[in-house]
Amino acid sequence: MFIGHFAVAFATKKVAPKASLGTLVIAAVFLDVVWPVLVLLGLERFRIVPGFTAVNPFDFTYYPWSHSLLMTVAWSLAFALVYFASSRDRAGAVWVGVAVASHWLLDFVSHRPDMPLYPGGGEKLGLDLWRSIPATFTLEGLMFAAGIALYVRATRSKDRIGSIAWWAMVGLLLALYIPGPWSSPPPSENAVAIFGLIAVAVFGPWAYWIDRHREPAG
Ligand SMILES: [Zn+2]
Q: Distance from the CA of 107 to the center of ligand 1, in angstroms?
């Protein structure tokens, strides 16, 4: 999943108003922050196999440290503890942890059965939503719309940047997401990992910037 993770970040702002949208975005995509680092270090592996799924060509052969269920729980707790230590926002810390954990559930729905339960073994799970472009677009699109609706109701812009920067991010996410299934395969596995890190380095600070120009509504 891609924009579905952002949908979770947007929606979480409603229940964790003290957490910056930047923190929520990084939480929701956190497993995909760990993953490219481990891929570049050679500790996790995937292959580009054109046609592997209808939506993308990624065959995730080995990613137990970033994407197993057990490690997801560990990353969620670690992220929530670091957030709590820096913010003292107890309720927000719980929701930030839930946002990290939600990543596993959404990937479980989308991926082929390649999601490990724990490093070193266990059954591999996945519901393979990516076999169908219409099903993927419908589910992820509805999630994205719902996340946007919740976010714009939970917050209001303090100035023009709060509105322009927010809608520009929504627009860029859609512009990156929609052509995906019809684009040519990426040049290499490492290029995908680097692009993933660049995306986090762009959208993370961008979301912090949006948050500074919006405030809780009502
Ligand atoms: Zn993922």
A: 6
List residues, by chain if needed, whose CB lies under 5 Å from ion ligand 1: 31-32, 107
Distance 150 CA to ligand 1 centre (A): 23
Distance CA 57, CA 155 (A): 37
Question: Helices 189-212 and 160-177 sit at what angle, rounded to 10 degrees?
Answer: 160
**For residue 115, what are the β-bridge partners?**
125
pLDDT 10s per residue in the chain (218 long)? 899 999 999 999 999 999 999 999 999 999 999 999 999 999 999 999 999 999 999 999 999 999 999 999 999 999 999 999 999 999 999 999 999 999 999 999 999 999 999 998 778 999 999 999 999 999 999 999 999 999 999 999 999 999 999 999 999 999 999 999 999 999 999 999 999 999 999 999 999 999 999 999 97
